[in-house]
Amino acid sequence: MQRFLSYALIFLFLFTGLAQAESIDALWGEVKPPPAPKLMQVAPNPGTTALLILDIEELTCNAERRPRCLETVPRIAALIDKARAVGMPVVYSLTPRGTPETILPPVKPLPGEPIVSSSVDKFWNTDLEKILKEKGVDTVIVTGTAAHGAVLHTATAAGFRKLKIILPVDCLSSADLYIEQASVHLLLTGPGTRRAITLTRSDLIRFSEK
Predict the structure, then answer these.
(1) Nearest in space to 88 (alpha carbons), one of 37, 146, 125, 143
(2) Spatial distance between the Cα atoms of 95 and 68, rounded to a whole number of angstroms
(3) How does pLDDT run across 180-207, given as a tens digit for each residue?
(4) Fewest Cβ atoms nearer than 10 Å: which of 12, 100, 168, 183?
(5) How far apart are CA 138 and CA 36, in angstroms?
(6) At CB < 8 A and 24+ separation, what contacts does 124-129 make?
């Protein structure tokens, strides 16, 4: 009898709570964004870190579709130069419709730098995990577009594989700021990434010799 009363009370609580709860659309205007996250200075080991350049190609990074992406390209290019200078692997991705020729000129891969092609999760149905393992990588610096596409899903997939993630927030992009902020917040708080991710900015990444 006591168990029955307990279940009845639980059911009553849930039923009345659901009846009174307002849906997200009714509360949309009341949501306050979280405080800006703290950005950290980082000095990754170039021998165990790889720089990922995700989908910086003509189809996804252009003035008409995603102008904010074009603003990130010089910063990503500077990271590439610094990574190459210390021997850090640079790995590229493409959308299924992209080709190596459609990668934007400032961030073009050098001969021999790996390129994988997939949808939003660049580990899915590609050799990315194998490439990183063969290079002894335990940390990835994730850059690219879109923030809520390739960046979010590839970083999450990296976290599932026990890789540490460095996310320079000035090297990701989407169609608008809200989506970029939401993507960063999801990676900072998500169960697959929150213990693995470090948020930073490209000028806060220090590259040292191996």
Answers:
(1) 143
(2) 18
(3) 999 999 999 999 999 999 999 999 999 8
(4) 12
(5) 27
(6) 124/157, 126/93, 128/91, 128/93, 129/161
The number of beta carbons lying within 10 Å of the beta carbon of residue 66 is 20
Q: How far apart are CA 171 and CA 79, in angstroms?
A: 9
Q: Are 142 and 167 within 8 A, CB to CB?
A: yes
Radius of gyration of the chain (CA): 21
Structure tokens at 56: 């910086």
Taking Cα atoms as reference points, which of 172, 150, 151, 166 lies closest to residue 69? 172
Distance CA 108, CA 184 (A): 26
> Which sign, positive or negative, has the C-alpha torsion 64, 67, 69, 73?
positive
Cα Dmax for the chain: 75
Which tokens belong to 157? Answer: 């997939």
Quote the pTM value. Answer: 0.89
Q: What is the DSSP string of the chain?
A: -HHHHHHHHHHHHHHHHHHHPPPTTTTGGG--PPPPPPP--B---TTSEEEEEE--BTTTSSTTT-HHHHHHHHHHHHHHHHHHHTT--EEEEE-TT--GGGB-GGGPPPTT--EEE-SS-TTTTSSHHHHHHHTT--EEEEEEE-IIIIIHHHHHHHHHTT-EEEEEGGGEE-SSHHHHHHHHHHHHH-TTTTTTEEEE-GGGB-----
* Digit-coded pLDDT (tens) for 125-149: 999 999 999 999 999 999 999 999 9
Report yes or no: 176 and 146 within 8 Å, Cβ to Cβ: no
Task: Name residue 177's amino acid.
Answer: L
